[in-house]
Amino acid sequence: MKSFGSVLTAMITPFTETGAVDYQASAQLARHLVTHGSDGLVICGSTGEGAVMTAEEKLKLFATIREAVGPEIFLVANTGSNNTQQSVAFTKEAEKTGVNACMAVVPYYNKPTQEGCYQHFAAIAQSTSLPIILYNVPGRTASQVTPETIARLANEFSNIVAVKEASGNLNQVSEIARLCPEGFLIYSGDDSLTLPILAVGGCGVISVAGHLVGEQLNQMVTSFLAGDVQKAQQIHYQLLPIMKKLFFISNPIPVKEAVGMIGLPAGEFRLPLVHANEKEKEFIREFLNAYDLC
């Protein structure tokens, strides 16, 4: 299968001072990202504070961003949750908004068995014709889907075509690449591990740093895939400090603060997330200045 792009940025969601979704600011930011290195966007994921948005807000945002960036940009709607029935129903509604794919996280809090994970993703796959990206992020979910279960799903459902791997475990990524059918797409879910994941079979990154250094990230991935490993390594080493510092406190707080500091629409947070304190903001300004971003 052809890749969906090298860099899919997991976009933040700007909120107004009254707590509403700022659709105009979201459209503006989306247009900026796709002209600065992002091949596509993931909407309402963890970085987009999707867990505190209503279904109606998300659907409107999917449609708003589709209109803002045009039909050629690859859009992924985060439609998964820890409730299988709700995930199925919401995926069906998201498909109507014009997105190109959906992303479904391993059910959090419930801690399902591997059979439970299989049944959860199978139900979502059977509900839609959209391509599905599985999202493995044990640091947030307290459980994970194994390479064996991913391979079972990929072999049985033609629309389960990719995984966002944020386990931090390169052995696991290698096993996914070894077990899954040819053409199954593996996206890094950690910016700083993108290059190592490319080396064991990955195709790109679903990125947080893409908000700030999307063009450089894209160049790194395309350089590696074109065989210029040395160039890819140089870019990796240049970007490594900022990729790591963007996670010094809970994502998306640092990146959302940084986006605002460089003059792009970032907006407010929704509780339980809050703005960085003054010491944390100064740390963010320092690494932005180090990269001549503000």
UniProtKB/TrEMBL annotation:
Enzyme Commission number: 4.3.3.7
Top-level lineage group: Bacteria
Enzyme class: lyase
Cell location: Cytoplasm
Keyword Cytoplasm listed: yes
Residues flagged as site, Part of a proton relay during catalysis: S46, Y109
Function comment: Catalyzes the condensation of (S)-aspartate-beta-semialdehyde [(S)-ASA] and pyruvate to 4-hydroxy-tetrahydrodipicolinate (HTPA).
Self-association state and partner proteins as the record states: Homotetramer; dimer of dimers.
Species this protein is from: Negativicoccus succinicivorans
Lineage: Bacteria, Bacillati, Bacillota, Negativicutes, Veillonellales
Pfam families: DHDPS
SMART domains: DHDPS
A cellular component term, taken from the record's GO annotations: cytosol
Protein name: 4-hydroxy-tetrahydrodipicolinate synthase
Amino acids binding pyruvate: T47, I206
CDD domains referenced in this protein's UniProt entry, alphabetically: DHDPS (cd00950)
UniProt entry keywords in alphabetical sequence: Amino-acid biosynthesis, Cytoplasm, Diaminopimelate biosynthesis, Lyase, Lysine biosynthesis, Schiff base
Single Gene Ontology MF annotation: 4-hydroxy-tetrahydrodipicolinate synthase activity
Active site: Y135 (proton donor/acceptor), K164 (schiff-base intermediate with substrate)
A biological-process GO annotation: diaminopimelate biosynthetic process
Recorded catalytic activity of this chain's protein: L-aspartate 4-semialdehyde + pyruvate = (2S,4S)-4-hydroxy-2,3,4,5-tetrahydrodipicolinate + H2O + H(+)
Pathway as given in its UniProt record: Amino-acid biosynthesis; L-lysine biosynthesis via DAP pathway; (S)-tetrahydrodipicolinate from L-aspartate: step 3/4
